[in-house]
Amino acid sequence: MGDPANTVLGKMLTEEITPVVMVLRTPLVEEMCQKNGLSLIQMLSPFSVFPNIDVPVRTASDQPYRLQKFKLRLFYASDIQKPNLEAAKVRLKKVITEAGDKDSSDLCSELPNIENVLAMSKSELLPPWFQVFNKELVCASSFSDHEAFDHPVACLLVVSSKDEEPINKFVDLFNTNQLPSILNDGVMDPKILKQYLLIHDNQDGMLDEASKILSEMKNTFGSNDCRLLCINSLQDGSLENCDIWNSVKVDASITLHIGCFLSDGDIDEIKLLMQDLSTKHIIPHMEQKIRMLNQQVSATRKGFRNQIKNLWWRKGKEDAPDTSNGPVYTYNSIESQIRVLGDYAFMLRDYELALSNYRLISTDYKLDKAWRRYAGVQEMMGLAYFMLDHSRKEAEYCMENAFSTYIKVGSQGQQNAIRCGLWWVEMLKARDQYKEAASVYFRVAGEEPLQSAVMLEQASYCYLFSVPSMLRKYGFHLVLSGNSYEKCDQVKHAIRTYRSALSVFKGTTWSLIRDHIHFQLGKWFAFLGISDVAFKHMLEILACEHQSKTTQELFLRDFLLLVQKTGRTFEAWRLQLPIIKLPSLRVVFEDHRTYASPAAVIVRESLWLSLEEDLIPSLSAAKANWLELQTKLVSRKHKESNICVAGEAIKVDIGFGNPLQIAISVTNVSLICKHSARTDKIEDDELGSGMDVQKDEELRKLIEYNAEDSSFVLSEVEFSLNGGETLVVQSTVTPRVEGILKIVGVRWKLSGGVVGFQNFELNQVKNRGPQRRRKQKHPPSNELRFLVIKSLPRLEGLIRNLPKKSLLGELHALVLELKNPSDFPVKNVKMKIGHPRFLLVGNPESLNLNFPACLVKENSERSGVAISNCEVSSLFQFPEDLVIQGQEPLLWPLWLRAAVPGPISLHITIYYEMGDVSTIMRYRTLRMSYNLEVLPSMDVSFKISHCPSRLQELLVRMDVINKTNSESFEIHQLSAVAKQWELTILQPFEIPLDCIMSGQALSCFFKLKNVKEEAITGDKVLLGQKRANHVKLSAQSGNQELFDTFSSPVADFHHQERLHQGMPDQEHMDTVDFVLVSQPRKSKDEEIPDHSSLLTHHVCHCSIASASPIYWMMDGPQTIHHDFTISFCEINLRMAIHNALDAAVSVRISTNDCSADTSTSQSSDSTGVASENKTGWHDVSLATDIKLASDILGTRLVKQAPLESVSPFIWSGSSSTKIELGPFSTAEVPLQICVFAPGIYDMSNHQLHWSLLASDNQSTGTLTRQSSGACTGRSFYLTVLQSP
């Protein structure tokens, strides 16, 4: 800490605890002094401070010491009284107001970073007026009756030489009516040192008269106590001695030069006067009184005997009740004398003597419950400990005890508590205990707003100066201080503290307090009329998404009110409301690729490139590709720029987000652009550097430039955003002339009053422009730079009648419309469809036909619907002589089928060329994309099995389930597409098919008949090709005709389904395709179908092949009556065998005789068919699938086997028969059995062994087949009855 006297507290004690001189003067004395713009005390005060007086002092001890610093405090007698608290408050407010006005120039300065604040020294950070304010607070507690250091030590009586009867004036001045109350009330000894001063004005002459008066004074009052002072020796008043009186507070209304009539001799005489007064009179007087009082105290209070006597005398006083003022002590009481002794010793810097007397009197005051006097003694003890640099704990304990006792006293000790707290704070700060000092400041703050504001601010700096710095508490106490400043109308100080706090919370996560600071600063700057700074602070709190809805409304309302009151339109760079979503920024422009709708823009570029691969001519085949032409016409500087066409808009999708919970209005949204004409006179470097716009001021200039520039047209958008809503807004710029165009940023207007603008961060731009092959990536600035070329033809396209929703399998007749608004024609038009399974190109003849009537079988050929050749290409070439020009559109039919449920996308690319070869682009493409949702309709499935009663027929089971929630359908027809098979209904339907309700499931049975190679009448097919035959299913269809499913577009879509559901070359005779045609009903209540809609469900590659390459059937009588008493029964049977292969096979039939046990076990089986005898059957159970009950299978007549082991029947023919069958041929083999007893017999005990016959022309695929196999016979039941 060093020397305590050199600390701030030491200097304060040297100035505040010093001898007081009471000054009494006549009015003429003041008039003489006022000639210099000073009062008497103001004239003498600069010379009452002695920084190096160096006089010997001897107090109670015999050992003298030298006093280096000394000061006299001069007060008029009228001022020696307790200060008026209201007047003190006025002075304090004046100090703060003047300081605020002085520092107002720094309110708009740049806010320092907290790092710079920490690097600054304490003297640079602390406002200088803090010491002035603290001194005023200390002075507010002066002249207390319980303290002696504010009591006058001497009295200076001053009379003018012009006064009449000056001797009597001296006597009259020390009249009891003019003396302060502390002298009249017995608080202090009225017998004080008196010094008599006669002042003579040299401008009045008559120095001799003054000398006579001085002689009379010496004769009357003594020669050592009288003195003459001559002033105003100068006559012209031109000399200015302001430097001497800088520390003196002079009335601002005085216009004279300070000390203008005081010569150097006058000043030297005043200086000598005050020095003599101090060294020859006051200091010796205080030494003498200290020695006298010390003798009295030693005789009465010191020593063991006197201490016991004092304690005995005060016994019982501790039990007395507390009083507000405590006991009254007169100046001649021993307690008052000890206090005077301690204070005099403290003022003469004998801190050991002062401390010993303070200790002596402290116990007495405590026992007497004189709490204010006790607190004062404790306070002086703490200061003495500090100046002696003794125990810190003792010093802090005394100050804590004093402060608490002052607070305990109440309002009478409030000002003394403040003074004690300030001295205590300085004591802690001198020892670098800033954290503890801050807590004391907080206790001193009190309830007075002005005092609280200053104390809290000083506490905040203590937190800043502590090690380590407590920044959070520093900023928090600054906010508390600023809030208190606002309560007492000190707005400038509130701004200063809040600005300092903002440097702490800026860039941190403490968003709530940061928003509060910005909001209050905005309001206060607006109150002071500094609207620009207020606007900047209010901008910081607009996007306060973390605040409540009420707070957000308050911030926005006050912000807009501020703008409205100024009557100006503010412009803000990077206005936070709404938030610009830069990562979602996307630029859409058209070069050789154009887009029919926004949906086509968002499609992946790789998908378009795959579609355009067959459309765009290759570089090697093209004689003059537009990329090569571009190289010749465009300079190397702009070769990497994006290319756009004059008159065609460049679209920028910008995301605007509202972080608030309240709705906001945004208007006048437009782009900020810069255009430069591309001429030979403009250098590339100049053009490039001129296009780089990043700064705020350059953006402002561009906004003004855009309003006057006619080289491009900007669109304006307005919208509103609800709370938390994010909206993507598309803004466009349309260049009119050729040149270089750059998109710089975007501007908008918030709530009609605030213009926001922001430049685009180029590395976050998503560009939907061309992707060229480059060796290295071009600079980011080129993403928003465009080379504008002259106007070109541009096709506009749309698809008419395209639904947004469709049912699964539904057919739609669409129309493609192409229009070229330009006067220049386009030619060589080609089209590529991305999904031919969903979308096909129709014939132009069917453009005006009614749908679906044009698909009726009898009308299909007549109406121009072509028979499909099943070769559908996704690339379509329009007629070569086709030219699109002018306003007349080109219409072309398209067919749409919703093939799969869920969302589907349709992508179309149209290629066309331009006749003007001078342009950079030789061709362009039109990209079209549409999305629609396919809803479930019906689920259709088929199951095929061989007919057990016919070799050349198959049974078909169709299961239909209505998957919709509300739609109903009428099944119109079922078509089969297969070689050599004809579809017929198995039996009439018991359930009508004219209406299948929502959620309903149906099963229908059909029969496929093998018609070999003969043609079906009416079919439009050739021999050997697949046939399409149809079955009408609707009961209410009446005279409705069948739809031709083998003509376009149904056959074309069927071909696509075949490609999707199986291999494209799968044309074997063992598969059948089915097409189910249905129509939805218009509503639930209407019974007629909606004939304007048509649904087709395609099920392809249904296999008709059996598990074995051959299949057979046993034929013969089912029931026979025979008289077994005569003879056994011979029964003739036939076996028909069919070869299902396209190769010749050899078949051998092996029969096995049945024993009695076998017959019995087979006859008693619950199903009548042994599991091992099921070989040869097609894997379809007739009883299960057709749901027909058989009496023979359900109930059996079982005949018990005879007791003897005799076979019930035997095969009487050959036990093994071998035949050869050609490809797809059938043969019959006769068989015979002999039955020996009546019963029910199963003729399944036979086997068929087959093997392929090798041939010279056998294909490689045939060699991979199984060459041989065996089939177990299937059941054939024969009932033999005994004839009557």
Give an account of the 3D structure:
This protein is α+β, with helices and mostly antiparallel strands. β30 (about 900-915) and β31 form a beta hairpin. The radius of gyration is 59 Å and the shape is elongated. The N and C termini lie far apart (about 145 Å).
Number-wise, the strands total 50
Query: Beta-strand percentage?
Result: 25-35%
Helix content: 25-40%
N-to-C CA distance: 145 Å
Structural topology:
Blueprint: H1 8-16, E1 20-25, H2 27-34, H3 40-44, E2 49-50, E3 55-57, E4 65-67, E5 70-71, E6 73-76, H4 85-102, H5 114-119, H6 122-125, H7 129-139, E7 152-160, H8 166-173, H9 181-184, E8 193-201, H10 207-221, E9 226-231, H11 264-300, H12 304-313, H13 334-347, H14 351-367, H15 371-388, H16 392-409, H17 414-430, H18 434-445, H19 449-465, H20 471-487, H21 491-505, H22 511-527, H23 531-539, H24 549-566, E10 570-573, E11 579-588, E12 593-595, H25 598-601, H26 605-612, H27 626-633, E13 642-645, E14 650-657, E15 664-676, H28 684-691, H29 696-708, E16 712-714, E17 717-721, E18 726-735, E19 739-750, E20 754-759, E21 766-767, E22 785-789, E23 796-800, E24 805-807, E25 810-820, E26 826-833, E27 839-841, H30 857-860, E28 875-877, E29 886-897, E30 902-914, E31 923-935, E32 938-946, E33 953-962, E34 969-978, E35 981-985, E36 1001-1010, E37 1027-1032, H31 1050-1061, E38 1071-1080, E39 1094-1103, E40 1110-1115, E41 1119-1122, E42 1129-1139, E43 1145-1151, H32 1156-1163, H33 1182-1185, H34 1191-1194, E44 1209-1211, E45 1216-1221, E46 1226-1235, ...
Parallel strand pairs: 1-6, 1-7, 7-8, 8-9, 10-20, 11-21, 12-31, 13-22, 24-31, 41-50
Antiparallel strand pairs: 2-5, 3-4, 11-14, 14-18, 15-17, 15-19, 16-18, 19-20, 19-22, 23-25, 25-29, 25-39, 26-28, 26-30, 27-29, 30-31, 32-33, 33-36, 34-37, 34-38, 35-36, 38-39, 40-42, 42-46, 43-45, 43-48, 44-46, 47-50, 48-49
Helix pairs in contact: 4-7, 7-17, 11-13, 13-14, 14-15, 15-16, 15-17, 16-17, 17-18, 18-19, 19-20, 20-21, 21-22, 22-23, 23-24
